[in-house]
């Protein structure tokens, strides 16, 4: 834990599962407590999922898992099911992502460019979808300075 390596986050996860406190991890790693708490939230939710089987994976738990950022494959692994079964259940529950638009002009005027992303942390689409669609896969990441 004290030495930063590419495996450190896995050791952090194991430490959190073993019951290490945020304060103890901070004293060992000097990672900001805010980040450690966020990481703990993820680990705690994963442990909740591991305590369930797919039959007990109710709508609100599945939705929260998607909102936290778990993939169907990760959820399936935690509840000892398959990715396909979780995806099917998610569809039956009506849990689908919403399309949102990146505001490329910081609300100075209405954005007209279609830089889009999908999220489970929304309740409506930003754009209507009246007909045919084109999806661009692998267009790259958006980050500060990338001139979106």
TrEMBL record:
GO terms for molecular function: aspartate carbamoyltransferase activity; ATP binding; carbamoyl-phosphate synthase (glutamine-hydrolyzing) activity; dihydroorotase activity. GO terms for cellular component: cytosol. Residues 1-120 form the Carbamoyl-phosphate synthetase large subunit oligomerisation domain. SUPFAM superfamilies: Carbamoyl phosphate synthetase, large subunit connection domain. The keyword Ligase applies. GO terms for biological process: 'de novo' pyrimidine nucleobase biosynthetic process; citrulline biosynthetic process; glutamine metabolic process; UTP biosynthetic process. Pfam families: CPSase_L_D3. Keywords: ATP-binding, Ligase, Nucleotide-binding. It comes from the Eukaryota. This is Cadherin. It comes from Agapetus delicatulus.
């Amino acid at each position: 834990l004290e030495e930063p390596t590419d495996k450190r986050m896995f050791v952090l996860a194991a430490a959190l599962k073993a019951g290490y406190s945020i304060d103890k991890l901070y004293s060992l790693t000097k990672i900001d407590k805010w980040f450690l708490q966020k990481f703990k939230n993820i680990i705690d939710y994963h442990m909740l999922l591991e305590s369930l089987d797919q039959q007990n994976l109710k709508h609100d738990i599945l939705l929260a898992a998607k909102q936290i950022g778990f993939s169907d494959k990760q959820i399936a692994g935690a509840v000892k099911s398959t990715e396909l079964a979780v995806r099917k259940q998610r569809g039956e529950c009506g849990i689908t992502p919403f399309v949102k638009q990146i505001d490329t002009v910081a609300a100075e005027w209405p954005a007209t460019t279609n830089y889009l992303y999908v999220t489970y942390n929304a309740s409506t689409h930003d754009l209507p979808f009246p007909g045919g669609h084109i999806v661009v896969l692998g267009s790259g990441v958006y980050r500060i300075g990338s001139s979106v």
